[in-house]
Amino acid sequence: MKAFTPPVKLHDLGQKTAIDRLHGFSITGNSQSMRQQMLDDVFVLQDIAILGQWTTLYASPNTGKTLLTLWLLGEALRELKVDGHYVFYVNADDSFKGTVEITELAEQYGFHMVSPNLNGFMSSHIPEMMVQLAVTGEAKGVVIILDTLKKFTDLMHKRESSEFGRISREFISAGGTLICLAHTNKHKNAEGKSIYSGTSDIRDDSDCAFIIDKVEGGLFQDEAAVEFVNDKARGDVADKISFSYSKKQGQSYADLVNSVKRLDDQKIES
Q1: Which residues, in sequence order, are CB contacts of 144 under 8 Å at separation 6+?
Q2: N or C: the chain end with fewer CB closer than 10 Å?
């Protein structure tokens, strides 16, 4: 009768087993060092977008999402809440004139402006750069603002949106900050409010999401009022926040940005 020969275990060959690998992946015991690496609860966009999170802002065209994002970013930079050296505003949905005007603001506020077909940049570089920043450990403190998101992924395609979400989450988990500007659906919900466009993947994968709507009437004839309503939250962001801006014929884009004001509920309801 042939003697039983026990199977050779991977341990005996000096190879790692599946359970060895799982133990190697475990982060239990690292909480103290991880907590030391956590970013402070700092707002990149006050009351709206927190450093170290992924925030998506949805609005219809010409609502003022770019304008208000730039105004809020300028506020954070002036107050030294974020370092402009690590802020990259990717303007991929504008005319050359608009690109020049926002670049002038970038030079004034001290952040980096990036635009397709200038200095060799293409929109396809963004996912690649987010992966590289995460892998190399350079993501912490980096703020990337994408205007608008449809230039970087197909919001109507579930698989592409899901893949973009996976890459973005790796970037965020490594300490990066992502702010995406996206469009709302052409059709309103049953309550007459705007809803996000595309599949639910981007909204679901984001840490925070806001819907931006114009408020009918405004304050004066040349003023527009808009309201940010929170649709998803992680952290101490506002449930609702309102702004106004004044748009006059012949004014510069800098003047338009400087006209932005915060509104309280009493003003917006009057």
Answers
A1: 88, 90, 126, 130, 171, 176, 177, 178, 179
A2: N
Asked whether residue 3 is domain-assigned, the answer is no
**Residue span of the structural domain in which 163 resides:** 50-269
The CATH number given to whatever domain includes residue 207 is 3.40.50.300
Domain contains 26: no
For residue 186, being part of any structural domain is answered with yes
The pTM score is 0.85
The token duo for 59 is: 């609005």
* pLDDT at 270 exceeding the cut of 50: no
- Map tokens 């087993």 to a residue: 17
Give per-residue pLDDT as tens, 204-244.
999 999 999 998 765 667 889 999 999 999 988 999 999 99
Q: How many domains does the chain have?
A: 1
Answer yes or no: are the C-beta atoms of 194 and 210 closer than 8 Å: no
If 0-12 CB within 10 Å is exposed, 13-18 middle and 19+ buried, where does residue 76 land? Answer: buried
Q: Report yes or no on 242 lying in a domain.
A: yes
